[in-house]
Amino acid sequence: MTPLGRGATNFSMFKLFAILLLLPLVVAKANECDAYLDIEQQYHCGKSGYPLKFGHKYCQKFIAKKERFSVEGQLWLAQVRECLISEVNSLAAIDCRELKKLAFESHGDCYEKAGFCELSSSDRKELYKMIVPQFWRVRLVQDGLSLLRSCKD
């Protein structure tokens, strides 16, 4: 085997080892999304409020469709999910309106911290297909453009 071939094998083994170490992070359980049900119990925003209509809904949607993403993309999804749930759990909103505002404000930061700019083009494409139906929300368009600009910095 040539040194180049051996290096490629070593890289493949490293990647496999890294994937095996990270596998527990990408194995998502639907009950992880129950955090949004707990938030709903606390705030009583109803079926059109942030916890149910957006948080819980998209948490489940991303878990259900995670196989469409690469292993790295699945890791990114897991990190974003953990960040978003942590953020929404730490909010001290006075009502549903403020909860929604503060929760949406955390989205861009969570996406960026998890490494959105390093996502492959195929993972980004899958992400866009899942969130584009929500782009009628002005706030999401603004956050999306801000996130894309951060990748160019």
Describe this structure in words.
By secondary structure, this protein is mostly helical. Helices cover 74% and strands 0% of the residues. The protein contains 7 helices and no strands. The protein has helices at residues 3-26, 34-43, 50-64, 71-90, 96-113, 121-131, 138-152. Helix 1 packs parallel to helix 4, helix 2 runs antiparallel to helix 3 and helix 5 (96-113) runs parallel beside helix 7. The N and C termini lie far apart (42 Å). Residues 1-5 have low confidence and may be disordered.
| Overall pLDDT metric | 81
Main sheet properties: none
What is the number of helical segments per DSSP (H or I, 4+ residues)? Answer: 7
Classify the beta-strand content into a percent band: under 5%
